[in-house]
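We emphasize that the prediction below concerns an isolated chain of 867 residues; any contacts that depend on oligomerization or on bound cofactors are therefore not represented. The input was used exactly as deposited, without trimming of termini.
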Amino acid sequence: MVRHTQTWMFNITPENWEQCVSGPEGPEIHGEEHVGVPVQGVRSDAPAPTEDIQEGDLVLARKKSHGVGGLWEVESVVDIGDDQARSLWDDADYSEIIYCRPIQLEINPLYEEDWSSFEEELGESVQTVTANIMGAVHNLKPEYKRQYLTELSNHSGVDATAKSRIDQELSSDEQPVRRTLPDGVEAWFMNPDDQWDVATKYDITVTGWEAVNDVDLADESESDIRSHFEDGQTTPRTLLDFRDNLPTGSILVATSGVNKVYGLGVVTGPYQRRELPELRSSDNYHTRPVRWLVDIHAEHGSAFELDTEGSDHLSERHFGIDTGVRSLDVEAYTEIAGQVIDSYPSLEADFDRVEAAAEAVTMRESDEFDTSYFWVNQSKQDEIDGEYLEAPYPKDSWQQDLARISKGDVIIHRSSEGEDGEIVGLSTALGEREITDEGDHQRVSVLFEPFDEPIPAEPVIDYLKDDDFIENTSHYLINRNHERMAGYLFNLPTEAANEILSGDFTRDTYGDYGDSLAVPESDYTVEKGHLHYPEEVWDNIQDRILQALANNNHILLFGPPGTGKTKLARQICEATIGENGYNLVTASADWSTFDTVGGYQTTIDKGLEFEPGVVLDRFQSDEDETPTNEWLIIDELNRADIDKAFGSLFSALTGESVTLPFDDSNGDSIEILSADRADEDIAENRFYIHEDWRMFATMNTLDKTSLYEMSYAFMRRWAFIPVGVPDLPEPNDEDSSTSELADRVQSYVEGWANHEESELPEAEQHYRPVGRIWRAVNEQRTIGPAIVEDIYRYVAGQSSPQASDYVSPVIMYVYPQLEGLRGDALQEVIASIETVIEDIDGNTDELWTVARDFFQKPELQRPEDEG
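Result of the prediction step, given as a token string:
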């Protein structure tokens, strides 16, 4: 980029003239240093190329419709808020302010343009000249700058200081100027070796390395890449630079050795592995897209040979390279550009284009630049070949207004081939609109990047008929009747443009995820794992669960506490869909649909946002709206008020779609979609229930009143499967039943001990008393094997085999299960337990002392103590 001090035209309306000349008054708003300095404002609805303005640039302050009335110099460009804008102008619709230093604050009398002299000197019509100086902030073309400054130098109202500054500006244009890189643009170089013809044919740059020529590096980490190299072989830094550190928008210089230049181009995209036929001989399939805009080799028959003698920047140490890419410092780029242009002056315009393209693409890729996107209906191949947009001037309608386009903006090109045409490529605007010399057309220069394969326009246009796009996009190509409009240039929403450019311009449907969401019946796995059930009991449980899953039922496991219901549900889910494929929650009496379905929650900026509950959250990925099929386990379902907690889910659980009384962040209603709506587009507001989704619940039969509060619609989607305890032998006078009890306990102990994570001693002396306690408790309140296991682990794990503390585990594990028993039943079961313990250890007083306090029943007494 050739950098002269630029000259800007500030067109100021007569009503704002005095305010802009006198400048700000409030130091508390603008700062003390800016009080009283001349200014110009940039309106939000009329952006200007302020990114090109630099301190020291010359300003011609022009009073609109009158003439140039001041000569200023740029001090700074600052983003402003409403307070700063209102302190200067009548409204606050300004985004930037340009603070200046006065060279001659006001020219008196004003310089009024003699348009006939402009016509004569520039060879352009008055209409063209005036069009090229309009706008609140306008960068004057070199020929316009010279004409204005020459006229002002001879104007009687210009003082000596201003004339000196004008003469300085005019003489600077006559001095040779060193080229430099545009702001934010980097320069790199690479050695195309024998691949230059391939590089220019496909607009790519190529590199390779034998160890990874068969590897697509796009998703490989640095450690993955390193693993392909033999021990002791260093991973080439230039290879990683090629993939990761060569910025899109960089200027790439194709060199050979230390003194030959093939050409220059602009990197336009990320790494790609491309197995092009011409690359097979070298196996160099690692590429980056590059628009080669200067081809010295093609234009002059050979590469350009640099003069490297005495150069600090073009030596082998700084410049030589065999493969890959390497960063090029600014001084080296300046020296290369200078030598090439000195030898081939005709290439100066090509260098200008390279630098303009690099700057525009760098802006396009920058997070700091607000890229605008456009759609153009391209009927003239000349525009694509010549890389420009063109429309009549003055414009006939807004569809021909190229002034809407700024440097760095992106245009998507639709050709008129076929009924709906094709999307043939994208381009990046290299600058603002200019009026042609004839004054009857307007043009924007662009860098055109064709797609490898054109995209049929029909599905793209169907996608663009989205109501959100139509409602929220001005100057859009689809009208409110969902019809494509005729015309030239249209605005595109960023989301739509990115979708088109990604190649994925149609929205996915839930059916597209069918395979990943499906859980085949062959995957259903119901194993008891470390749980222990008698064989006949387990066979019934297993068969019922498998059949219920196959029948598309949700499964409710019910039974007394301690029968392993929750563990069994977890084991089924883990074995069928994996450890991360389900979620477990515990129901609560406080549950409402807010907990299960979801509701509005306050965001960090004090807004409201819909947050899915524990059920709906199973159907969408946390990162995005990608559909998921996470199974759900609800432990102790009977704790919840079913109607209050699941009301709006009743229909959804019976296979119906439901629209909820909530909206997402885009204002769309939250929907629960049934499995028969797989053809619907995936969206943030939609939660799709796949037919293979399953929910497990557990219910404690100590309190099954909630069972009868379920609606029929809710109950009929569940299979109720009992998980009970085996019948225990009845006591008899011959005490044979206690032997059977001991055998029963022993079988459970052996089952528990077989679990690889368990360390459980086999203490035979405890089998019989543990079994008798289990039977005594079950006479009043059924408990499952898990509680019996807790009792056994306690007594079997005591330090001495002779130890016999049964009171403690009874208090710790059995008493909580006896809550709610009537006083007489409670007294009976404690007395039965005491009988067992007395046969082992006579100290049972604590059983009664703790019971009276724990159950808050002071009347509890040993039977012999009553009366």
